[in-house]
Design brief:
With 112 residues, the chain is an alpha+beta fold. The chain has one domain (5-107): GIY-YIG endonuclease, CATH 3.40.1440.10. Helix content is 21%, strand content 23%. It has 2 helices and 5 strands; from the N terminus they run E-E-E-E-H-E-H. Strands 1, 2, 3, 4 and 5 form a 5-stranded antiparallel β-sheet that branches. A hairpin with a 5-residue loop joins strand 3 and strand 4 (44-50). The longest helix has 15 residues, at 88-102. The radius of gyration is 13 Å and the shape is globular.
Length: 112
């Protein structure tokens, strides 16, 4: 399912990045948040989250994104977007809601 920008207007989101290439790591905030992997057509492939101070870790600029890539969650993806939340609880809830909406192919373990 293609990404819908309307989902970026959720009141749990306090800031966001533009889409950027998976290989084009950039500085990210330490805030809790949700990251979305998509292909060039913005078809959502994976949705993950990072708790406070887990989005960025020493020497690994995009720790949670890097970790997801190492686990193969980037299969078919070329881009990533980060949606920052105020706290971990909001990122957990936002991630769950977005997974229900998009049912990304690389989130198999969360499907019932």
């Amino acid at each position: 399912m293609k990404w819908n920008e309307d989902h970026e207007n959720d009141n749990r989101i306090v800031d966001k990045t533009d889409w950027f290439l998976l290989d084009d790591y950039k500085e990210l905030k330490e805030n809790a948040g949700v990251y979305v992997f998509a292909n060039d057509n913005l078809d959502v492939k994976y949705i993950g989250r990072a708790g406070q101070r887990r989005m960025v870790l020493e020497h690994i600029q995009v720790f949670e994104i890097y970790s997801a890539i190492c686990r193969g969650k980037d299969d078919g993806s070329t881009k990533v977007k980060v949606l920052y939340t105020q706290n971990n609880e909001r990122s957990i809830a936002l991630e769950a809601d977005l997974i229900k909406i998009y049912t990304p192919t690389n989130n198999i373990y969360l499907k019932d």
